């Protein structure tokens, strides 16, 4: 039996409404999924900025004595950690987690990642000391040291707080006390700079390699 014109229009309208409902439900599902994903990332410690920010120019020395500037950040996902080689707790723990994260990546993802430790104790952490320290965790890691003012300015851009190195005087009160054993309080989070050389995200402390791996995969997929 042939359909009337009104019946045909009614069926078409019904199909269109159904399609609109499907599109709406899919859109709502995707929005909710995105929110759930964002919540999961926050729970594991990753905070991604809505807009990555430019960094002020800086120049420090790497662990081989070569100059390292903001221009050297392009082309990699750079994971910055600020610490010092005499740190007894948070630094070795974080560096070990970073090594597990880095070595656990597949070759393609590893080629796009770079771990950078910036010393907040340049008085004791010269190039040779820093080289021995970062290489003990992973020879691919980069260590940066240099002028304390440049380091402090870079740290401030990454919202890293650290105390100033202290002096412990000799018991004989000799003139010109030399730096001995002292502690430096510092933030433990990671600052993440994207391949365009812009500050894109933060991974809060304590850093765990599995969470960082998940966070990095998300950054790679979303970039």
What topology emerges from the helices and strands here?
Layout: H1 5-44, E1 46-53, E2 59-62, E3 67-69, E4 77-83, H2 90-103, H3 107-111, E5 113-119, H4 127-137, E6 142-145, H5 148-157, E7 190-193, E8 199-203, H6 209-222
Parallel strand pairs: 4-5, 5-6
Antiparallel strand pairs: 1-8, 2-3, 2-6, 4-7, 7-8
Helix pairs in contact: 2-6
General description of the model:
With 223 residues, the chain is α+β, with helices and mostly antiparallel strands. It has two domains: 1-44; 48-222, Glutaredoxin (3-Layer(aba) Sandwich). Helix content is 42%, strand content 19%. An eight-stranded mixed β-sheet has the order 1-8-7-4-5-6-2-3, sandwiched between helices. The longest helix is centred in the first third of the chain and has 40 residues, at 5-44. The protein is globular and about 40 Å long. The model is unreliable at 6-36 and 167-178 (pLDDT under 50).
In short:
The chain has 223 residues and is of the alpha+beta class. The protein has helices at 5-44, 90-103, 107-111, 127-137, 148-157, 209-222; strands at 46-53, 59-62, 67-69, 77-83, 113-119, 142-145, 190-193, 199-203. Helix content is 42%, strand content 19%.
Index terms:
single chain; 223 residues; alpha+beta; Glutaredoxin; 2 domains; 8 strands; 42% helix; 19% strand
